[in-house]
Amino acid sequence: FPSRVDVSTSEGIVTLSGTVSDLLAKERAVKIAESIRGVRAAIDRITVTPVLRPDADVRKDVLAALRQDPATESYRVGLSVEKSVATLSGTVGSYTEKQLAARTAKCVRGIKEVRNDLTINYLAKRTDLQIAGDVKARLRWDIWINGELINSAVKDGKVTLNGTVGSALSKSRAFEDAWVNGVTSVDDGSMKVEPSCATATSAS
Length: 204
What we know:
By secondary structure, the protein is of the alpha/beta class. It contains five helices and ten strands, in the order ββαβαββαββαββαβ.
């Protein structure tokens, strides 16, 4: 069936609604909205209505996709599928691995939602000082954000971000950048989005 996404805006807040056939289309719509100049936040109310398939078939295809991808074949991932909702469990070695496993599952036809319950077990513990240095470097070298306007603090492996960015996409990028090796959580609740601080992320 054709996908349809409706958009409404109010004071820089974009609300997306409607129906799409897969999770990746939903994610793309949100990212596009966040990248538009002047958008302070994107509220996602899009419904995913996938092709109806038996849960057993969907689970089989997700497991096959994880095994066939060279990047995820070694992951020890538990998987259950109920009413088109896939739940990932088990342990991986980094935030990147956790996100990649979920993205692989989202590519499978028939998935309505992915619940990512994977836990991260770092092989070596890193100091807050090491983590802070990596976070600052990631923020500084990310061409899509204005890193010098973002402050970061690390305590017991937990990263707190604050400061001002020019778009909702910049805020999302900063959140992703902060997940360096050794991080256990990232809090970006204090970050503000001000379009007047437009950065390279802003769409023309």
